[in-house]
Each structure stands twice: as C-alpha cells, then as structure tokens.
C-alpha cells in the first residue's frame, strides 16, 4: 500500500476523510494536505527515513528523544519518499531544515529545539498539552 | 537586601565585562583573518559569507561557525553541514523558535545555494555566561546526507 494509504488507514475517520479530500483535491506539498497530516494529531515528525530506520542523525535524535519519553506511537512522514511534501513542509512552517516536529498541530521546532526542550524539561510540558504523559515522570515517581 | 542587589549588580558587571572581552576577541580574530580574507573567500565561500552576514545581523559577542560536512556523506571540502554558535543581545526576550527563525532568515540565500543542514545555538550573553560554553558535536550521520 502506498504512503498516503498507510497514513489514512491508521488514523480515525475524520483524519481519513480529510486525507482523502486532500489526496484528490491537491498536491501533497499543499497547505491543505499538510494541515491534514498535522491537525488533530498529538505528535507528528517530518523526518528523513522512518522511526525504525532514520536516514539522518538529526532525525534519529528526535526519534530517540521521543522514545526516551516513552512516546513510541507517533505519526511520522518520510520526506525522502515524497519530494512535494519535502518542499511543502519547508514552506508551510517557513523552516528550511528537516526534521520538523509538530505537537497538537502546532510546529514545535527542529532537532536543536527538541533537544533543548528535552534538557530543560519543557518537553514534558509540551507532551502533557498533547495529552501524553512522559515516561520520565513515571521513572521519577518510582524513585521516590 | 542590599547584599542581594550588590551581588546582582556584580553579576551584571561581570557579564558586561565578559561580553566586552568576547567582542574584543572576535574583533581581533576578524582583523587577523582580514589579510587572508581573499583566500578564505575562495576556499570557504559558504563559511565566509555566513560569518559576514551573521556578524552584521546580530553583532554577536561570540560567533563560532563549525563546518561539520566532513561528518556526512558528501565530497571532501564540502560546505553543506554547519553548526553555528551565536551569542548576542539581539536574542534577549526572544523565544527559541524565533531565534532560530531569525538566524535562518539571515542565511536564506545560503540555504538556497547549497547549505543543507544547520545546527543553531543561539544564546543571550547572560545565558552563555551561565552555560558550560561548550557545544557538543552533532549526532552522527545516518547515511542520508546527500539525499
């Protein structure tokens, strides 16, 4: 099954419809299409490669940080598979580099920002806003 | 109370002094390089133009530009992957994402002409003073650099 199909069947019905509309009404680099990918999702990562096989050190770092917080089932978009998305996401966020992380439909930043937020604890708060409880909190409680 | 105030002002003074020292250091290093600037333009056109633009835009007290291209799957001598460390008053009161945007915007032309990856450390002089002032290496390449 192609990339769009996989994405569509994974999400709930609303996302499916949104993607279906986006699929047949516009290109994958369009604002509407990317809106459909990021809106209503807790965490979406635009990256090179896949979470299991990242093709870039910065993309890999983002995946590892998320896993460190116990976030395994996040949505990811492999920009190497779709040149339109790769260009489109850069225009969408006005951000020139990959990876790019979205939480709750909002653009969070790239690898450096993710790393900083991880180090200063803000990432736990951002995850909380997206309805995800960081695994680091569990670990801290178990210690107490 | 008076003690607290004096300790704060001492800190401020110290950071002002440090900032000043860094400015001087930066000014000196750019002077010392000016004799070979013509050469650098030819050998490292990307690094040279990044340095010039960032220095003009942010008047940084610290400006480090590290070419990390050798860590990636690109030809020897490439100027594609960089890390920049910028310490500037211009970042005072500016959120991290916005700091990165400012830097990216200054380097818009470079992104259009071969700059591929840019790791950014953007701090205010006070943040820099409090930090270890050491910047770690970027994560290792996973083979997709040229893609």
Automatic annotation (TrEMBL), chain A:
Gene Ontology cellular-component terms listed: mitochondrial matrix
Domain Glutaredoxin: 43-107
Protein's UniProt keywords contain Transferase: no
InterPro entries in alphabetical order: Glutaredoxin, GRX_PICOT-like, Monothiol_GRX-rel, Thioredoxin-like_sf
Alphabetical list of Pfam families matching this protein: Glutaredoxin
One MF term in the entry's GO annotations: metal ion binding
UniProt keyword terms in alphabetical order: 2Fe-2S, Iron, Iron-sulfur, Metal-binding, Redox-active center
Name assigned to this protein: Glutaredoxin-related protein 5, mitochondrial
PANTHER family on file: GLUTAREDOXIN FAMILY MEMBER (PTHR10293), GLUTAREDOXIN-RELATED PROTEIN 5, MITOCHONDRIAL (PTHR10293:SF16)
Biological source species: Littorina saxatilis
Gene3D superfamilies reported in the protein's UniProt record: Glutaredoxin
Source domain of life: Eukaryota
Signal peptide: none
UniProtKB/TrEMBL annotation, chain B:
Similarity remark: Belongs to the BolA/IbaG family.
Gene Ontology, cellular component aspect: iron-sulfur cluster assembly complex; mitochondrion
Record-linked Gene3D superfamilies: BolA-like
InterPro entries documented for this protein: BolA, BolA-like_sf, BolA/IbaG_stress_morph_reg
Annotated PANTHER family: BOLA TRANSCRIPTION REGULATOR, BOLA-LIKE PROTEIN 1
Lineage of source species: Eukaryota, Metazoa, Spiralia, Lophotrochozoa, Mollusca
Protein name (record): BolA-like protein 1
Organism: Littorina saxatilis
């Amino acid at each position: 099954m192609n990339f769009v199909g996989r994405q569509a069947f994974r999400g709930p019905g609303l996302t499916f419809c949104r993607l279906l509309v986006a699929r047949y009404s516009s290109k994958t680099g369009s604002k509407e299409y990317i809106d459909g990918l990021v809106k209503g999702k807790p965490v979406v990562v635009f990256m090179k490669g896949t979470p299991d096989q990242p093709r870039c050190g910065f993309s890999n770092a983002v995946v590892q940080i998320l896993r460190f917080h116990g976030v395994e089932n996040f949505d990811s978009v492999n920009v190497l598979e779709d040149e339109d998305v790769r260009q489109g996401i850069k225009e969408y966020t006005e951000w020139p580099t990959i990876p790019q992380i979205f939480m709750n439909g909002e653009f969070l930043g790239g690898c450096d920002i993710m790393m900083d937020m991880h180090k200063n604890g803000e990432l736990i708060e951002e995850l909380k806003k997206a309805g995800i409880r960081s695994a680091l909190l569990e670990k801290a409680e178990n210690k107490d | 109370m008076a003690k607290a105030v004096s300790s704060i002002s001492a800190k401020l003074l110290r950071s002002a002094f440090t900032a000043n020292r860094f400015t001087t250091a930066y000014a000196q290093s750019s002077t010392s390089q000016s004799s070979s600037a013509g050469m650098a333009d030819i050998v490292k056109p990307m690094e040279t133009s990044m340095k010039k633009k960032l220095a003009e835009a942010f008047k940084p007290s610290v400006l480090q530009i590290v070419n990390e291209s050798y860590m990636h799957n690109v030809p020897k001598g490439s100027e594609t992957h960089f890390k920049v460390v910028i310490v500037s008053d211009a970042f005072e009161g500016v959120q991290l994402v916005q700091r990165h945007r400012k830097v990216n915007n200054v380097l818009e032309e470079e992104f259009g002409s071969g700059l591929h990856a840019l790791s950014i450390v953007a701090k205010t002089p006070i943040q820099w003073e409090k930090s270890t002032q050491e910047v770690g290496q970027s994560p290792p390449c996973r083979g997709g650099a040229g893609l």
